[in-house]
Design a protein that fits this description.
Elements (H helix, E strand, L loop, with lengths): L1 H16 L13 E5 L2 E9 L5 H7 L7 E9 L8 E9 L4 E4 L2 E5 L2 E9 L5 E10 L6 E8 L4
Antiparallel strand pairs: 1-2, 2-3, 3-7, 4-5, 4-8, 6-7, 8-9
Length: 150
């Protein structure tokens, strides 16, 4: 029974909430960190890989040089939970930009997404602070990503 929970955690944010298409590019790479039993999971992808419905739901502008950050927070039982999310992108020149995220809930699944601008092949360090309501303290997820040339 542990395997279906892992598969659900990995695929649901990509396929269910954002409605990613599988055309042209590979799925976004998943990044995660766990602290005190809570897991913060995030991925980025070009906005061309998300459905029109998902773009409308999250208020994300689609187009060249636009990408989306998706964040999900799980409790120790594997359920998504509400959290306060603060997301920043920092390029290699040290320029910081905040990524405003919007939450959405669908069929008991809570996810956060926000759009951001990037240049072709820009390397970005993401810093996400998530404060789950039930935990009371922030969990920090850091990862580096680069979107392909379009």
């Amino acid at each position: 029974m542990y395997l279906p929970r892992i598969a659900h955690r990995m695929l649901s944010p990509l396929l269910l909430v954002l409605g990613l298409t599988l055309a042209a590019q590979a799925l976004a790479q998943m990044h995660r960190v766990t602290a005190d039993g809570f897991t913060v999971q995030a991925s980025t992808t070009d906005t061309g890989n998300i459905s029109d419905d998902a773009a409308r739901r999250f208020g994300i502008e689609r187009g060249p040089g636009r990408a989306v950050l998706n964040v999900t927070v799980f409790d120790p039982e594997g359920r998504t939970v509400p959290a306060e999310i603060d997301a920043q992108a920092v390029n290699l020149a040290g320029m910081k930009r905040r990524i405003p995220v919007k939450s959405t809930a669908m069929q008991g699944w809570i996810s956060y997404a926000g759009g951001y601008q990037h240049t072709p092949s820009e390397v970005i360090d993401f810093v996400i602070h998530a404060r789950p309501e039930r935990l009371g303290q922030a969990i920090t997820l850091r990862f580096r990503d680069r979107l392909p040339l379009r």
